[in-house]
Amino acid sequence: MVTGGAGFIGGHVVDRLLAMGERVVVVDDLNDFYDPVIKRANIAPHRGKECFVFYEVDITDLDSLARVFKENKIDHVVHLAARAGVRPSIENPWLYEKVNIGGTLNLLELTRAHGIKNFIFASSSSVYGNQQKTPYSEDDLAIQPISPYGFTKRAAELLAYIYSHLYDLNCICLRFFNVYGERGRPEMAFSLFTDALFNGKPIKRFGDGTTKRDYTYVGDIVDGVVRALDHDAKYEIINLGNSNPVPLNELIQILEDITGKKANIQEFPEQPGDVKATYADLTKAKRLLGWEPKVKIREGAKRYVDWHQKTYLS
Fold first, then answer.
1. Which domains does the chain have, with CATH numbers?
2. Rounded to an integer, what distance in angstroms lies between the CA atom of residue 159 and that of residue 237?
3. Which residue(s) pair with 216 in the sheet?
């Protein structure tokens, strides 16, 4: 089962699992956080395949979710469904608590009830908040999220720990760092900046451009998820990042170079909840999963821009 399997990362995970010959049950409510047409397009190539099953179900709807578990023989749950985004979580923390914590609890409880032993959870670098120590390690104790979104992801990690402890459930929490790539969500920086450059619109830059993000290519993230499926662990938290923080100004420069366009930058104050930097320590990912990122920022950005141009401008 892949929850959120019609979304950005989920769609890529589903593609990979089907290519590997797995039978995949996708659960996604196709909500309107961004245009559901995009999500439907992500799974459209798989409609009608015998090894692909889709349920338009909200993970906060326990009864409907229970029906999915009852109707399918599931051996792994890959839980990617969530309300995403730091800034929207500040505007509506109740929704984020309901989906990201309550929905995760529903999935853990049904996973336990059906005797499924393997649960992969998509967490986030947002759990770290503004740490002084870098790179961010899974063993860091001073974890203080500064947004409701980051808090909900940390709370869900702890729920997974409780179920692992009480019910011998194998839980791996993967902390994703600033994922980008083809089919990225339209409100993400890569999408907004590329669209602005090609269409001569201003780029809204919050702060002075010195904030750094550990941009990680979606294909590398999918590799990490697949490796986690084969890893036998009672409970683990593992960073999946690029371990190469890129300043915002540098990202804009990279996209300028690739598109051949000059950015018109509009400056705005830094936004509440945004961290100064993200930076993944990959020691644990390398040791436990044999995983490390392969795609550098310029190569990944070129792939994204080519896809964006073909999808939206051709």
1. 2-179+217-242+279-293 (3.40.50.720)
2. 13
3. 179
Gap between the Cα atoms of 94 and 305, Å rounded: 35
CA-based torsion, 147, 151, 154, 156: positive or negative:
negative
Report the chain (314 residues): mean pLDDT per 10 consecutive residues.
97 98 97 93 94 98 98 97 94 97 98 97 95 91 89 97 96 97 94 96 94 97 96 94 96 97 93 88 97 97 97 87
Q: Indicate if 304 belongs to the active site.
A: no
> By the 8 A CB rule, do 246 and 297 touch?
yes
Q: What is the DSSP letter of 216?
A: E
Chain Cα centroid distance, residue 255: 22
- Give CA–CA dist 175/61, Å, rounded: 25
Which one of 55, 149, 163, 180 is the catalytic residue?
A: 149
Tokens of 255: 């996209």
Q: Which residue has the tokens 């759990």?
A: 127
Q: What is the pTM of this model?
A: 0.96
Give the torsion sign (CA, 82, 6, 230, 213).
Answer: negative
